[in-house]
Amino acid sequence: MTKNVRRALGRPGSVDLRPYRKLLGPIEARESEVRDFSDTEITEAATRLAEAELPYERDDLVEFLALAREAARRTVDERPYDVQLLGVMALLDGHVAQMATGEGKTLAGAIAAAGFSLRGKRVHVLGVNDYLARRDAEWMRPLYELLGLAVGWIGQESTPEERRGAYAGDVTYASVNELGFDVLRDRMRLDPEELVLPAPEVALIDEADSVLVDEARVPLVLAGAAEATEANHEVAQIVAGMRARTHYEVDDEGRNVQLTDEGLTFAEEHLGEIDLYDEENSELLTQVNLALHARVLLRRDVDYVVRDGAVKLIDESRGRIALLQRWPDGLQAAVEVKEKLETSDTGVVLDSITVQALMLRYPTLSGMTGTAIAVGDQLREFYDLEVADIPRNAEVIRVDYPTRLYATREEKEDALVEEVAEIHATGRPILIGTQDVAESERIATRLRRENLDCVVLNAKNDANEASIIAEAGTYERITVSTQMAGRGTDIRLGGSDMSDRERVADVGGLYVMGFGRYPSSRLDDQLRGRAGRQGDPGSTRFYVSVDDDLITANLPELSNAELEVSAEGEVTDAAWRESVDRAQRIAEGQLLDLHRNTWRYSQLIDVQRATVLEQRGHVLNDGLGARHLAADCPKRYEQLVEEVGTEEVERAARHITLYHLDRGWTDHLAFLEELREGIHLRVLGRRDPLDEFNADAVPVFKGFLDGARTRAAETFEEVPVVDGSIDAESVGVKRPSSTWTYMVHDRPFGSEMDRLVGRARTRLRGGS
């Protein structure tokens, strides 16, 4: 089928489903014939379909979906609903299918992946975490195998050999982050046989709005060990003695913290009467900024946990531990000093990629989620994707109660606990969604003090996520969860085996309670969607307070307003209640600005990176490095060939050339980062920062490839032969001893603007 889009006026869900619906009758008719096939005949029929080419013509699509429907019934005991087949057709057409929670996205995605694969396309099914990648691959494996296809999966702990094997299959399940880090690691390989990833062809994205929108602004970074971190414990102690609003101030968004004049004086006096804004103290100023950021903005059990004697980052978009990930440029060490732990190595950025750039590598992109229409305009703007609004299989009878608003978090918590007690007395299962780990544990402690036993799901016990959330529909069960809420695992009334379904349904089904609204209405909707699956009864309610971060960060001018409250303490002022929605819209707008800004700045970098990667590919696979060095250093090249042989020289030429390409790119990235940090000073001259960034970045990149080639030739001339082989390390061609990955959110370090303001302060205080 071809792209089938009808632009509905003002409506992002613009894919016309009528052509898909017309195929449902023929599919069912063909299915009745396929039901008599043996398993071998189904496999053979699927193999014959693989001989054609994309896109699917009508008859081929009918044949495939009839085969897939019967194969699913036999292998996973699920016959896809008509609406699931509509979703499959939308995915095969390269759209984002909006399918509500509990409507069978996993099976629809597997059938679509099989459809792409049978047409000769290697498919990567990408999701938000490793657990779902493994679960879905193993769950759907019998379906794939009956259709003659091989499936694999990768996770954070997969070895290079396991990754290579998984990617070699027809369909590979992985988290987006793991795929991105594999891309970055492949960009640093020295030998072709070390490569892990094949060329990108089709990406099918689960939780597409989360991946393509929420995480698109977050760069994935590969860093290499450079040196042991000199952690400044003295600075950490000084910062620990500082007081909020006296020595430092936090911005309205809670993203940055800076010293006040009094705080600057406090630090300088304790460091020995120095001027922190002197050039010679720039490193010390950075350490103060890092320690302050770690102390004030990074919160234990919110941004990280301490496990097994080490700081473990929490992935803020999913509430899970982010294995093998760290903060950059000394911030990790600052947090470790704060927690009185042994500090780890610092490092340099070797390369980075945004999730958006990662996804746009794929010629074919499609996805599915329960909340796509709300970001339909962004999906169209950034990815040229349209949304297909797939109807539900069963009518929604869930009741979404109005949000309750209170003056303080304490009052909000009291009201929530009171209602939990009332609902729990009826036997209804309750799921409470919280904003972070600390909040989930505080609520759980409070509930237990009231003799309300509960189960907690957060980053501290994420290994048990699926089993915890699968039982959240059990009679009398109370589950407290961070926002991940067991994505991808159905909450069935009566528990995972549904043995007590009728009793739970009779008391009203699952009751979902949100302890605060999220920065995005889509996250609210995702939490609501945990109740009322497939026509089940259920209800939801959110509790908000005037001092919630969502309101204080986005509408700080309202925080001291007069409040009208009921006898129960609930805020009744209609204007205030509307302000909750307004604060959320402001937060969504800020997130969109971040996404758009990241995209604008990364465009030029992506073009330059593509140039370097193309050259790197020729060096890695086509022997370009050896040809260049043979031309640039002919005498030395011939001499080395005589001493160690052509194969050894070609290998050394490749490694030396790749080293200088990679080292040059690392230095160029550092330059671009410094340029971007300081570029906003140009606003003072009424110049556009992006134009200024591009104007400076383009000429610096000219001659990049020639410069790397020249440096490679200089190294090659000096490289010695030791024990019958070329010793490149002795002339500085040395790779990092280790690498790690991290995700960049905000840079807390002293920027050029900080230094400008600091020098101005120094002059005002009578300094030089």
Helix % is: 40-55%
- What would you give as the CATH superfamily of the largest domain? P-loop containing nucleotide triphosphate hydrolases
Distance between the termini: 72 Å
In terms of per-residue confidence, which ranges show pLDDT below 50 for 5 or more consecutive residues?
A: 5-12, 745-768
The name CATH uses for the topology of the largest domain is Rossmann fold
Radius of gyration (Å): 29 Å
Question: Pairing-aware structural class of the strands and helices?
Answer: alpha/beta
How much of the sequence lies in strands comes to 5-15%
In total, the number of domains comes to: 4
The biggest beta sheet reads: 7 strands, parallel
DSSP helical segment count: 29
Task: Indicate the overall shape.
Answer: globular
What does this structure look like?
This protein is α/β, with parallel strands linked by helices. It has 4 domains: 18-223 and 356-389, P-loop containing nucleotide triphosphate hydrolases (Rossmann fold); 228-344, Pre-protein croslinking domain of SecA; 399-572, P-loop containing nucleotide triphosphate hydrolases (Rossmann fold, 3-Layer(aba) Sandwich); 590-737, Helical scaffold and wing domains of SecA. The protein contains 29 helices and 24 strands. The chain has a 7-stranded parallel beta sheet, sandwiched between helices. Strands 15, 16, 17, 18, 19, 20 and 21 form a 7-stranded parallel beta sheet that branches. A hairpin with a 4-residue loop joins strand 10 and strand 11 (320-321). Helix 6 (105-118) crosses helix 7, helix 24 (624-632) crosses helix 25 (634-644) and helix 25 (634-644) packs across helix 26. The longest helix has 49 residues, at 574-622. The N and C termini lie far apart (72 Å). 44% of the residues are buried. The model is unreliable at 5-12 and 745-768 (pLDDT under 50).
